[in-house]
Design a protein that fits this description.
disordered C terminus; alpha+beta; about 350 residues; five-stranded antiparallel beta sheet; 12 strands; globular
């Protein structure tokens, strides 16, 4: 690990100024991803700017009827917040599915959005990786890619984004707010993550030196009836090989509104807009859900060892929407958000 300096920021503008004065600096929140990458040599900051104690740790209602979530809110506090559980239950479920209690107590909302891929070629500094060393190649295309992307990838990178939390945020049209030396700004989550293209090392559209200050969720009545489902290779905490955030509003047997976002299939949370368009205004049935999933996944470009994800995601779409189409007591969607083991959010 490279020797580094440490400064604790006392206010938002002070944090931005500290990073601006040291180009090789990084913001430090919970450190659950950054510190690991520093240990392996993937990240080599000269200075860590600690932002954990900035006044960005609140969850508040907005005037428009949504929620504003501060960047230093911990994942534990996010999952336990009563308004998150009531208005956006899929978000609470995703956070609970994402990591152990110890990690949730440390990890922050801003840091979760910026976590890096877990691709083994990226985390191994002895191997080429376009995301880590631009122009060096993507060995995953011909190598180990069982967990990699089937949507939106390119010949330059087939890694997936690891966040559970970002999937329901994408489904609910979240907006990321940030601060720079020139003042505040915001980015819809749909524009926050850049397409892979030929520059996979450029992961977000954040301006250089920007500090994420929070995430705003607009009012979305459909989100109150939502679900997050995650498939992983072991029952204990592990990164997804496929996940879905779904919300459904059915009136008189017709889909009035639907939200769908897929996880672990692309370099960013994948908003399934084609499926949403096909479902809206149509009947509620397994056949309709399957047709929508097929239309969304028609663009999939599977590699030799990850074609199973196409079938997996098709089944996840059908299962999640079928569950949401049942009466609330039958589906079990209403009530406390739970993780896979049934642990209630605390």
């Amino acid at each position: 690990m490279r020797e580094f300096g440490y400064r604790r920021a006392s206010d938002v503008q002070g944090a931005v100024a500290l990073l601006g004065a040291a180009p090789e600096a990084r913001y430090l929140g919970g450190g659950t991803n950054l510190v690991d990458l520093m240990k392996t040599g993937v990240e080599r900051p000269a200075l860590l700017v600690d932002v954990r104690e900035l006044p960005l740790d609140r969850i508040e209602a907005t005037d428009a009827g949504g929620l504003r979530i501060g960047a230093t809110v911990t994942n534990s506090d996010l999952a336990a917040h009563p308004e998150v559980r009531r208005r956006y239950p899929a978000l609470a479920q995703a956070v609970l599915a994402g990591a152990s209690g110890q990690l949730r107590n440390m990890a922050t909302v801003g840091g979760n959005l910026l976590q890096r891929t877990r691709c083994g070629y990226f985390t191994d500094v002895t191997r080429p990786c376009n995301k880590r060393a631009p122009g060096s190649g993507c060995p995953a295309v011909e190598g180990e890619h069982r967990h990699h992307a089937i949507l939106g990838a390119s010949a330059h990178c087939v890694a997936v984004h690891p966040s559970d939390m970002a999937v329901p945020l994408a489904a609910f049209d979240a907006v990321v707010t940030y601060e720079t030396a020139d003042g505040p700004g915001e980015l819809p989550l749909a524009e926050f993550y850049r397409p892979v293209g030929d520059t996979p090392h450029l992961e977000t559209a954040l301006p250089a030196g920007a500090l994420i200050t929070g995430v705003t969720l607009p009012p979305a009545p459909v989100a109150a009836r939502s679900r997050y489902r995650k498939v992983r290779e072991r029952a204990s905490y592990a990164f997804a090989i496929g996940s879905i955030a779904a919300a459904l509003d059915v009136r008189d047997g017709v889909v009035h509104e639907v939200r769908l976002a897929l996880g672990a299939v692309a370099s960013r949370p994948w908003r399934a807009r084609q499926a949403e368009r096909l479902l809206t205004g149509g009947p509620v049935s397994a056949e309709a859900f399957a047709a929508a999933a097929d239309a969304e996944l028609a663009a999939a470009q599977a590699l030799p060892d990850n074609g199973y994800k196409v079938t997996l995601m098709r089944n996840l779409v059908i299962a999640a929407l079928s569950e949401l189409s049942l009466p609330p007591m039958a589906s079990g969607v209403a009530g406390a958000a739970t993780d896979r083991s049934g642990e209630a959010a605390r």
